[in-house]
């Protein structure tokens, strides 16, 4: 017996009896002959002049909207010219744009912002997807023959300026929308070609969305707000660690919204995944090997070194793996406080060990430059789903007897299935309060205010990144006014609760 567990747009997510994975089904209609003809050669509507005109737009979103609006207009004109109502215009448009970018049928999957990953394992095998809510699912979308799959692979390679064939059977690159693609062909994948696309979210998750999904609590989010902002004086340096697919980049994007807008931030990655578009003065740098091949001289290490000549206020490194780790800590040492990075490790202790071992080789004496290690992991829940939680937050202390001191201020409780505050005193509070010239009691009051404001945003469904940013900016400029608004809201709720309680007692007599 099957059960529809989610439904939106043309998508149904179905729990199939006796099957380990849900079915992600896109309802693709039967197309008319005119619609089929349009889809067969979608590029007929896109002239060279139009493509050139679209490149005047700096961002992918603006360029894509320009092309999509133009294509929508031409499709409607074409259908009406042939006396056909545009009943399936939305999906025809989606597939036509997909043909233009070279994704073919995968376009109906890539259009869904609820998907994190799209995986094609070969011909006559349905594509697998990772859904943000339902985890791994099997889809009803796939390729029926080698020619159609090979055509998509070659178009993807052409769009990213690469070659993929028997001599160069691996491709790892960034798609025009920022998504990350990995392609393998024989002989590297003897059972057939594969495509793995990690979708890039044009609008990053906000901190409030992460609170809603349970990644962190309001209290921890308020603490990280103070740490990343630094009360305008001294932000802390941190590493966000975790396993593959644990959500490190998502969380780093979210907490980076706490960076003051007047700061200049330079990010360094081997393939762009960080999305700091909400910052006015953001410069993303990308290591060239991810685009042009192994022989390119532009490495992560070189780029992090170069950031120090760009007058940044802080440096952020995505996926610290090699000698760039030392340069990141050098940046912290010369006063670029608030610098951050992500790293593959499953605990705070493993993070320090990996940083000091080859190929990173960070000297032990430099480790105290780091203030905080946040660990995030994928946790399997009782209902079979996968959730992403912050599972450990540790302060770094001094080096004593050849060991980097770590103090767990938050740790994962497997019984409660949640992150809990430990009894360990947060030394960072002293550092933050001292730098800002306030008492620890005043800092605690500030943390309470920010926690209450985050809860207010959650309760009022203020989730979208720019809505959250507006509240953060308002609080920065006029904290008294914002907190008065929050207090009035909760006072009104309490009055309503008391009135309902009084009414209940009166009627129950």
Topology:
Blueprint lengths: L2 E6 L2 E5 L7 E4 L6 H8 L7 H7 L5 H22 L7 H13 L5 H4 L4 E6 L7 E4 L3 E5 L6 H14 L10 E5 L5 E5 L9 E5 L8 H7 L4 H12 L8 E5 L5 H8 L8 E6 L11 E6 L2 H4 L7 H8 L6 E4 L6 H10 L6 E5 L3 H9 L15 E9 L5 E15 L2 E11 L4 E4 L5 H10 L3 H20 L5 H13 L1 H29 L2
Parallel strand pairs: 3-6, 10-14, 10-15, 11-12, 11-13, 13-14
Antiparallel strand pairs: 1-2, 2-3, 4-5, 4-9, 5-6, 7-8, 8-9, 15-16, 16-17, 17-18
Instruction: Return the average pLDDT rounded to an integer.
Output: 90
Number of strands: 18
Helical content, roughly? Answer: 25-40%
Main structural class: alpha/beta
TL;DR?
The chain is α/β, with parallel strands linked by helices and 509 residues long.
Overview of the molecule:
The structure is a single chain. With 509 residues, this protein is an alpha/beta fold. It has 2 domains: 3-198, Beta-Lactamase; 207-477, Rossmann fold (3-Layer(aba) Sandwich). The protein has 17 helices and 18 strands. It has helices spanning 33-40, 48-54, 60-81, 89-101, 107-110, 146-159, 207-213, 218-229, 248-255, 289-292, 300-307, 324-333, 348-356, 427-436, 440-459, 465-477, 479-507; strands at residues 3-8, 11-15, 23-26, 115-120, 128-131, 135-139, 170-174, 180-184, 194-198, 238-242, 264-269, 281-286, 314-317, 340-344, 372-380, 386-400, 403-413, 418-421. Strands 1-2-3-6-5-4-9-8-7 form a 9-stranded mixed β-sheet. A 9-stranded mixed β-sheet has the order 12-11-13-14-10-15-16-17-18, with helices on both faces. A hairpin with a 2-residue loop joins strand 1 (3-8) and strand 2. The longest helix is centred in the last third of the chain and has 29 residues, at 479-507. The mean pLDDT is 90.
């Amino acid at each position: 017996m099957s059960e529809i567990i989610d439904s939106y747009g043309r998508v149904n997510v179905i729990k199939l009896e006796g099957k380990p994975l849900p079915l992600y089904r896109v309802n693709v209609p039967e197309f008319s002959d005119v619609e089929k003809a349009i889809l067969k050669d979608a590029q007929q509507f896109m002239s060279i002049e139009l493509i050139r005109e679209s490149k005047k737009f700096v961002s992918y979103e603006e360029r894509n909207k320009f092309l999509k609006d133009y294509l929508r207009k031409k499709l409607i004109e074409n259908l009406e010219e042939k006396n056909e109502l545009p009943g399936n215009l939305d999906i025809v448009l989606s597939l036509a744009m997909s043909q233009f970018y070279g994704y073919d049928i995968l376009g109906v999957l890539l259009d869904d912002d609820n998907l994190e990953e799209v995986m094609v394992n070969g011909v006559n095998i349905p594509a697998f997807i990772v859904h943000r809510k339902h985890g791994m699912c099997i889809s009803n979308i796939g390729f029926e023959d080698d020619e159609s799959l090979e055509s998509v692979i070659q178009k993807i390679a052409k769009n990213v300026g690469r070659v993929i064939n028997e001599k160069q059977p691996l491709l790892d690159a960034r798609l025009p929308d920022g998504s990350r693609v990995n392609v393998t062909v024989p002989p590297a994948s003897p059972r057939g070609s594969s495509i793995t696309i990690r979708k890039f979210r044009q609008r990053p998750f906000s901190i409030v969305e992460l609170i809603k999904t349970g990644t962190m609590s309001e209290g921890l989010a308020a603490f990280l707000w103070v740490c990343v902002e630094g009360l305008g004086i001294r932000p802390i340096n941190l590493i966000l660690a975790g396993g593959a697919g644990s959500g490190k980049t998502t969380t780093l994007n979210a907490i980076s919204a706490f960076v003051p807008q007047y700061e200049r931030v330079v990010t360094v990655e081997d393939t762009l995944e960080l999305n700091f578009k909400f910052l006015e003065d953001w410069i993303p740098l990308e290591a060239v090997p991810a685009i042009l091949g192994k022989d390119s001289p532009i490495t992560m290490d070189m780029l992090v070194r170069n950031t120090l000549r760009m007058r940044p206020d802080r440096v952020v490194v995505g996926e610290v793996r090699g000698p760039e780790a030392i340069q990141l800590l050098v940046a912290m040492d010369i006063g670029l406080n608030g610098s951050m990075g992500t790293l593959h490790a499953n605990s705070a202790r493993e993070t320090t060990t990996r940083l000091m071992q080859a190929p990173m080789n960070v000297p032990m004496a430099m480790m105290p430059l780091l203030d905080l290690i946040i660990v995030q992991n994928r946790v399997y829940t009782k209902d079979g789903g996968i959730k992403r939680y912050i599972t450990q937050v540790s302060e770094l202390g001094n080096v004593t007897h050849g060991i980097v001191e770590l103090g767990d201020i938050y740790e994962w409780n497997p019984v409660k299935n949640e992150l809990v505050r430990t009894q360990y005193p947060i030394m960072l509070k002293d550092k933050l309060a001292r730098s800002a010239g306030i008492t620890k009691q005043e800092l605690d009051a500030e943390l309470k205010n920010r926690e209450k404001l985050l809860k207010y945003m959650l309760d009022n469904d203020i989730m979208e990144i720019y809505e959250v940013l507006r509240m953060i900016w308002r609080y920065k400029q006029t904290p008294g006014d914002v907190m008065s608004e929050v207090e009035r809201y909760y006072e009104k709720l309490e009055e309503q609760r008391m009135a309902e309680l009084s009414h209940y007692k009166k009627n129950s007599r």
